[in-house]
Amino acid sequence: MKPENIADLIRIIECQIPRDVESALERCREEEEEGSISRQVLEAILENIRYARENGIPMCQDTGSLVFFVSANGMCSKIRNTIMEGIAMATERVPLRANIVDPFSRRNTGNNLGRGNPIIHFEPSPDGAVRAGILAKGAGSENVSAVTMLDPDRPVEGVKEFVVQTVRKAGAKPCPPIVVGIGVGGSLDEAAILSKKALMRRLDKPSEDVFTGLLEAELLREINALGIGPMGFGGKNTALGVRMEVADCHTASLPVAVSIQCWALRRISFEVMKDGAILRGD
Amino acid sequence: MGKTYMLSGRIGESEIDQLQVGDALYITGEIFTMRDQAHLKALAILRSGGDLPFDLRGGIIYHCGPLVQGTKVISAGPTTSMRMEKVEGEIIAGTGAKCIIGKGGMGAGTLGALSKYHAVYTEYPGGAGALAAKAVVGIRAVYWKELGDPEAVWALEVKNLGPCFVTMDSHGRTLRDELKSSIHGSQA
Question: Which residues in chain B are closer than 8 Å to A44, comparing Cβ atoms?
Fold first, then answer.
């Protein structure tokens, strides 16, 4: 894997929305009332998606902060360096907007790198293969995301209430129709990571866990019943999907994190083959 | 359904007052990108009695941090307007801007200023950055580049930028209030 590969993958996610997301947006457009602002907004979004793909232009000016999920045994430093070089290259070539700043002085680093950036979540690989995912996360939706520690007395209701309340509070800000990534359990930090990881699962791929899948479907119904609609102009479609990842947790705790994702869900998964070639996944 | 208007980059009060929530605008002329940092910097200058290096009288403020490469605007959709709510009323009063383009809606402070100073708040479809950049003909000037590219003020020449939906007009109306029966308790 070379920095060029990383830059190419970043170009793909910035300019080409995944097919499952585009299909979900097309379905939403058909469901919204003819002539409504909600439907007009979805038409503009779909036209924007096609125009960006055909011309190799980032679909949104907020090219996001880049989050990496890497499953590998060893080589972490090498992988990290390759990713960093790839991001600097992508910033010039795709191009990406320079989004990373010092949190206090707000001074821009100019190349999307900086202290603690890029964010890379490493985990051991079960079979030795190197697999990775990239998520380009915009700030409009990240800013309305939330994490909490619930009392564990009524876990299902508690989680559902917190998720729905977070979406209601977000309103039009995160560019709905959104995708809602949920992390339940683990710890404060782990729940937040799981909520991001949940966004990597395709919208047309149900959870392998039956209970999780049912909860996702129930939450999607409740969220769409809020009626916030596309860009907050009312309607049937507030969310394109709900994705949840679960980990066991301390007996006294119930950590819950909600990563709100704008309609522009920019993600890619891939495997690095033995000869360094990249095999694209979902 | 609302009416459709073609507007130029400098707008008069009577033009503004004919606009109603739900109308769609297509804008041609000069617009100025201003987001978080530019709002704060402009406010500091105005409060100290100074003049801004650009003239916003009758002008259009775009809540946008464009993606720019060299002299070309690559992608330029709106950013979430609510972050500017705390200062927007004072910016409208101090600059004489007549139209704001953003996304996600704004609050009571801005609504009051829109009525008092005859201005409108409009929304371009969020995330449609590539499409918005297609309407950008060129960059006339850039101010406060030291704030970083996303936060700088870009004076952009646009042609038929739209639809920008009027969601808060100069008559005290907001579109989302009127849709409220279908938006249960959204704080948008």
Answer: 125, 128, 131, 163
Complete domains list, chain B, with CATH:
4-173 (3.20.130.10)
State pTM to two decimals.
0.96
- The 3-class SS string of chain A reads CCHHHHHHHHHHHHHCCCHHHHHHHHHHHHHCCCCCHHHHHHHHHHHHHHHHHHHCCCCCCCCCEEEEEEECCCCHHHHHHHHHHHHHHHHHHCCCCCCCECCCCCCECCCCCECCECEEEEECCCCCCEEEEEEEECHHHHCCCEEEEECCCCHHHHHHHHHHHHHHHHCCCCCCCEEEEEEEEECHHHHHHHHHHHHHCCCCCCCCCHHHHHHHHHHHHHHHCCCCCHHHCCCCCCEEEEEEEEEEECCCCEEEEEEEECCCCEEEEEEECCCCCEEECC
A265 touches chain B (CB under 8 A): no
Q: State pLDDT tens for residues A135-173.
A: 999 999 999 999 999 999 999 999 999 999 999 999 999
Question: Does B125 contact chain A (CB < 8 Å)?
Answer: yes
ipTM value? 0.95
Task: Please say if B171 is a catalytic residue.
Answer: no
Contact A41 B125 (CB under 8 A): yes
